[in-house]
Amino acid sequence: MVKGLNLATDILGKVNLGDMAFLELKDRLPSPQESVVFNALLVALVEHGITPSALASRLTYLGAPESLQGAVAAGLLGVGSLYLGTVEGSARMLQQASPDASPATELRVIARAIVHDYATRKASIPGLGHPLHKREDPRTPRLFAIAAENGLSGRHVQLMQLIADEFKLRHGRPIPINATGAIGALASELDLPWQVCRGLGVMSRAIGLTGHLLEEMRQPMAQEIWDRVDAEATEHLSRNMEVDSD
C-alpha cells in the first residue's frame, strides 16, 4: 500500500511518474489540471546540457564505471544555490512574502519591498536572470501559460512577475524570470512547501544525469575533457612560470 492505494491494482499502469511524485509529496493523486502543471515543471528540470552537474557525473563515471549510482549522486550533489537550487530560493521568497496579501496593489508593494531588500544586501534575486537568455527564458512564458490554462496562475505567479517589473523600474534594465523562478512560483501555486522544492530538481535531474551517463557509455567525452584540462592547465602554469622568471 502507498498512501492508501494498492500499488499493484490502483497505481501500476494507471499512475505516471510525475503523478506518483505528487502522491508522495501531497498524500493524494493530483487533479487533471494539477497533473499537467506538475509534470510540466518536472520535465522542464530534467535536461540542461553539459552543466557542472553533468560534468561531475561523467567524470565520476570515468573513474568508477562500476558505480552508476555514484556517478548520478556526484551530479546531484551539485544542486546548489546557483544551479537548480534556485527553485527553492524563489519558492521561499514568494511563500514568505506576506502570505495574507492578495490584491494586486498589495502584491506590487510587496514586490517593491523585495527588490529593495535584495538591492540593499547586494544579493541576487532567486529566479531572475540567465547567462544565456538575456531578454527572455523561453521556458518561462510556456510554463506560465500552462499554469493559466489549468487554473493555477495565482498570487505567486503574479508576485514573481511583479518582482521582475520592479527590478526593471529600480535598475533601469529588464531581467528575465528564469525557469527556476517560474517553477518556484508554480510549486507555490500547488502548495508545495519551499523546503522540498529543491527536491523537485533532484528527482528530475536524476533522470537527466542517467541519460548523460548512457550517452557517456556510447559516446565518451569525459576522458577527452580530462586530457584537455590537464594539457591546458599545464600550459597555463608554464606560461605563468615564464612570466615570473622574467
Task: Based on the model shown, name its key terms.
12 helices; mainly alpha; flat; 2 domains; 246 residues; Cytochrome p450-Terp, domain 2
CATH architecture of the largest domain: Orthogonal Bundle
- CATH topology (fold) name of the largest domain: Cytochrome p450-Terp, domain 2
What structural class do the secondary elements suggest? mainly alpha
Looking at the structure, what is the overall shape?
flat
What portion of residues belong to β-strands?
under 5%
Order of helices and strands: HHHHHHHHHHHH
Helix share bin: 55-70%
Number of strands: 0
How does this structure look, described?
The protein is mainly α and 246 residues long. The protein has two domains: 1-30, no CATH class; 32-218, Cytochrome p450-Terp, domain 2, CATH 1.10.230. 65% of the residues lie in helices and 0% in strands. It is built from twelve helices and no strands. The chain has helices at 7-11, 17-26, 32-44, 52-63, 68-76, 86-95, 104-120, 139-149, 155-171, 179-189, 197-218, 222-245. α6 packs antiparallel against α11 (197-218). The chain is flat. 34% of the residues are buried.
